[in-house]
């Protein structure tokens, strides 16, 4: 179910219901044993207990849009998907910009800067897909789709500021997702840069970097001067090689919605990270509770493309409405199927809304009512 009661969740984790109620209270959610939780809250609770949450959408199971398992022989290597996280102002966006510029310099980009949440950079003939995490809420939604979205996490820490609350949070996200972590110690050009202090503070988060004889890679960089960026890219490729990332490019496409918006000229624009298969113009697809026929595909350089395969971020034009970030994306066999799935999901959303309206209230909501 897309919603679950406190008791049911407790049963599944083999924990006591009261323990969950306490944890919820700590999160500012006043709930009794019989109260219904939405997926996001349930996930936070599960993580709080140190378990790894796994979401199962009823509709996907019943309708089977994820399709069959891939045959080993159909798998081909794919680019690593790397999520960049970190405390506010530590230089996450600057790093992404610097990497993108490097790509422009190498003649890759067409000079059209189009901000989407995901893009590819080519390093010595190998592609790396980067995901921006523009805000906490967005990242939670991304994470909600499971660890499969990201292969590697880069946590950016400013050398002149050190480990801050969102640095800790980012590390926790990476750990919860079970993906390798790379620490980028940024702003090394700054007067007050003290990378050893960062290394020291990371110990408290149980992150032991390589130069402290640990197993977490760290790279000193400056997004401003470009110092260490080649090294960072090499480290990513090294890590990716170890992961032996593969996907079947020749099946119906599956992916995740990175962001979606309504564009005046282009209609619904669904920025999607393709995870397996290849999406093509004319394909019928479902994205969350919306469906459509692929009218056009636009890559991260603003160029129209005919298709997009595994690990490729692409803007999909043609959805009937605007899906949400974190929604799944799947190409289906025909329009009737698409309608069936979307009808089911919209029904689920309605039910969930009705339950939420009668469900647990946050402290904040209680006080502002
Ligand atoms: P949020 O998106 O708000 O979380 O911040 P961010 O992590 O994306 O930081 P952003 O890239 O916006 O950088 C914040 C400030 O730090 C900007 O003024 C940057 O110019 C500056 N900055 C980023 N990287 C470096 C660096 O390597 N050296 C120096 N000196 N300044 C930097
Ligand atoms: Mg930013």
Describe, in plain words, how this protein is organized in 3D.
- The chain is α+β, with helices and mostly antiparallel strands and 369 residues long.
- α1 (6-13) crosses α2.
- It is globular.
- The protein is built from 11 helices and 21 strands.
- Residues 56-64, 102-116 and 143-148 have low confidence and may be disordered.
- It is 34% helix and 27% strand.
- It starts with a strand and ends with a helix.
- A hairpin with a 2-residue loop joins β15 and β16 (290-298).
- The strands form 6 sheets. The protein has a 6-stranded mixed sheet. The protein has a 6-stranded antiparallel beta barrel with strand order 12-13-19-16-15-20.
- The chain binds guanosine-5'-triphosphate (GTP) and magnesium ion.
- Guanosine-5'-triphosphate (GTP) binds next to α5.
- Residues 77-246 form the Tr-type G domain.
- GTP binds at residues 86-93, 132-136, 186-189.
- Belongs to the TRAFAC class translation factor GTPase superfamily. Classic translation factor GTPase family. IF-2 subfamily.
- Residues 80-228 are annotated as: G-domain.
């Amino acid at each position: 179910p897309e919603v679950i009661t406190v008791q049911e969740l407790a049963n599944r984790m083999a924990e006591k219901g009261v323990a969950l109620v306490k944890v919820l209270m700590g999160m500012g959610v006043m709930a009794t044993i019989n109260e219904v939780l939405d997926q996001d809250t349930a996930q936070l609770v599960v993580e709080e207990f140190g378990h790894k949450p796994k979401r199962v959408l009823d509709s996907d199971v019943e309708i089977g849009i994820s399709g069959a398992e891939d045959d080993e022989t159909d798998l081909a290597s794919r680019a690593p998907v790397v999520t960049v996280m970190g405390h506010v102002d530590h230089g996450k966006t600057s790093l992404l910009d610097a990497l993108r510029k490097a790509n422009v310099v190498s003649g890759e980009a067409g000079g059209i800067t189009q901000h989407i949440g995901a893009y590819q950079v080519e390093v010595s003939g190998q592609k790396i897909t980067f995901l921006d995490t523009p805000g906490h809420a967005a990242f939670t939604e991304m994470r909600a789709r499971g660890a499969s979205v990201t292969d590697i996490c880069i946590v950016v820490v400013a050398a002149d500021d050190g480990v801050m609350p969102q640095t800790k949070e980012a590390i926790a996200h990476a750990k919860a997702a079970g993906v390798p972590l790379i620490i980028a110690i940024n702003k090394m050009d700054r007067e007050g840069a003290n990378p050893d202090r960062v290394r020291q503070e990371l110990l408290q988060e149980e992150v032991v970097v390589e130069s402290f004889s640990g197993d977490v890679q760290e790279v000193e960089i400056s997004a401003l001067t470009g110092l260490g960026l080649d090294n960072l890219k090499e480290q990513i490729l090294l890590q990716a090689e170890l992961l032996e990332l593969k996907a079947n490019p020749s099946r119906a496409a599956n992916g995740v919605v990175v962001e979606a918006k309504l564009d005046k000229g282009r209609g619904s624009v669904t920025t999607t990270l393709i995870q397996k298969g290849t999406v093509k113009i004319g394909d019928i697809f479902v994205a969350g509770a919306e469906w459509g026929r692929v009218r056009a595909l636009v890559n991260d350089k603003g160029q129209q493309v005919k298709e997009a395969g595994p690990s490729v971020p692409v803007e999909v034009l043609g959805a009937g409405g605007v899906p949400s970030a974190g929604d799944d994306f799947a190409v289906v066999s025909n329009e009737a199927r698409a309608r069936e799935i979307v009808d089911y999901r919209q029904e689920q959303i309605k039910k969930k809304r009705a339950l939420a309206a009668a469900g647990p209230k946050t402290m904040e909501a209680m006080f502002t009512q």
